[in-house]
Amino acid sequence: MPPAASVALALVVEDDRCLVQMRHSCDILNGLWEFPGGKLRPGESAEQAAVRECAEEVGLAVTPIARLPDHEASYAHARVTLHPVLCRAAGPLPANHWVELSRLRELPMPPINATIIDDLLKLLRTLQ
User: Average pLDDT in the 46-65 region?
Assistant: First the structure.
């Protein structure tokens, strides 16, 4: 059985756009788009990990707004529990890859992200 990991995802939304990045060529699932994020450290909440990973990966300070439902995904290399966190930028926006919310589903992403995108859009409708 592959090892299990808990991963926070920072779903950073600004002006009807969401921040995404392409997985590194040396990573498993390389060439796919993803939300910034990474493994939770011992004792770290999903919100804390999302803030830390955004700063580390894209140089963006963020503020957590809301948690979305957790999701589990199984791959040949690992079992992953994803902890999505809706975030807002708390500093200047980097010139990273921002995608209109209406176009998120067009990006090649890991399959579990389709459900996460649905959850995100549903949550955003309730916050309007």
Answer: 95
Cβ 10 vs Cβ 53: under 8 Å: yes
Close Cβ partners of 49 (under 8 Å, ≥ 6 residues apart): 8, 37, 38, 39, 40, 41, 83
The mean pLDDT of 65-77, rounded to a whole number, is 89
Here the tokens at position 87 are: 């975030």
Taking the model in full, what pTM does it have? 0.90
CB 33 within 8 A of CB 22: yes
Query: What is the β-pairing status of strands 62-67 and 37-39?
Result: unpaired
DSSP percent split of the chain into helix, strand, coil, nearest 5: 25, 35, 35
Q: What angle do CA 70, 74, 78 make, to 5 degrees?
A: 105
Rounded Cα distance between 1 and 39, Å, is 19
Q: With b meaning 16 or more CB within 10 Å and e meaning fewer, what string describes 53-73?
A: bbeebbebebebeebbeebeb
